[in-house]
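ugh finaly. both done.
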Amino acid sequence: MFALALAATAAAMSAAGYQSMAATGQWYGKTFTGIRRGSKQLALTYDDGPNDPHTLRLLEVLAKHNVHGTFFLIGRYVQQRPDIVREVVNAGNIVGNHTWSHPNLIFASARQTTTELQTCEQAITQAIGQHSPLLRPPFGGRRPGTLRIARSLGLIPVMWNVSGQDWKSYSANEIKQRIRRQIRGGDVILLHDGSHTGMGVDRSQTIIATDLLIPEAKSEGFEFVTIPGMMNTSAVSRER
């Protein structure tokens, strides 16, 4: 009996740990992961910028295809390169909060979490003024307290349900193919125009993958929208 109880406890702890990092997990509070399957909308999202020069090159690709994305920005990089953030917004894209320094908020105290979110908000506001209330937790990590703090600050947590896993140094074609295998419509796609490890990290393969993905998806009838655009078109799905 004790062994069964121990096994059940271990399983529950494992499930809880999984839910704290799972992009579509909803145990710890509602997060936006896309809309109903079968929609022809797709949302491209990019984390860890602004990043010189790759964010600017990505903007050229998006403009070439007349597509707008949603960029989740690290506050310390915003402070370094507010000019790039202004370029992102001037091109019609949406920006959101990705904390000041990209910690895993699962392990952050309430005070640290609040400081990370508020300081990033201040940096973005100083760079561009009013902006979206969107938040993406670094690594997807969150606890119930994380989401409570975010909402107390007026932030809306946004996750994803499709990932190109472009942080693993895949080629552009591999990134594109990984995304193509996952999309069903109504999807939020995770990519990166920067890296939490430092400014200047090479994201050229992500940019090429974006350039390959957009025309293929458009040829199949998909439409690319920003996260606010997707939120306004249909009921939010708690789980995919």
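ok and the 2nd:
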Amino acid sequence: MPQILIFFVGLAGLVYGADVFVKGAASLALRLGVSRLVIGMTLVGFGTSLPELSVNLSAAFSGRLDLAVGNIVGSNIANIGLILGIAALVAPLTIHVSLLKLEIPLLLLVSAGLWLLGSNGQLGRPDGALLLLGFVGLLLLIGYSGRHEPRQIEADIVEGGVPSSVDATRATWRDLAWIGVGFVLLLVASRLMVGAAVDLARLWGMSELVIGLTIVAIGTSLPELAASTMAALRGEADIAIGNVLGSNLFNILLILGVTAVITPLPLDPMLIRVQIPVMILFAALLYPLSLRGRSVGRPAGALLLSAFFGFLVWQLTSID
């Protein structure tokens, strides 16, 4: 009972933290002259990936390496199947051309690259360094692409009015405060939920790999769920989608990169044969689902959600 109570207290903190985080990030995007998609893929994507980073660093230093890798693979599957599925059910998500040309293919490339790097059964320190180099390249690419969307940014600013310099400064500090409060709530609440979930899973006799792929992965993905759902409710489709794509890229390039540099990560053969290919398949699903009407609508959301729960049930019933 105490663990269940902690779990739901964490859930409440996640929902409120995500609401204020998205509110501050969306407002700050306009004031800085940055598109919502870039904000979603960087600020929101990184902020909601912090639980994965925290869990992986803790797992690496404590020698729970199956948990660390399973957390990232499971989180990336949950981000697309669970988070985008629910967000699309809340409100259809418009897909910009840049996503089809760049961001979604990039996620597929990075996911396939992870599978190739780990095909020898391990992610070593050189592999981790290569992933971190890719992360630096990702930041440069996002910054470059964000500078080429001036028309939409100008339209958003004109629509919102042009405030005085004093009002703009106050509003910027207010937005930063909202982001800070939301960020802290997301981090603390997610740790509460993951800790409670792991304790409950151990009582049920689950292995660390299964815990990482399912309970911990869902727990660390809850900030993405809360942030993307709130963004969808507010009509911020760019932030909802950018958050998921950015988080998945950060999970592989930054978090697995840092973890592998700290300590080489042995990969369970089942990860190479099954779970990582499934992660790639979920990313690949985004492309055909997005082509029709350039949006992920409610039918597509229902399909993603059904596929995720099918994967979850399969993992819980077939893996020792």
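summary for the 2nd one i guess: The mean pLDDT is 79.
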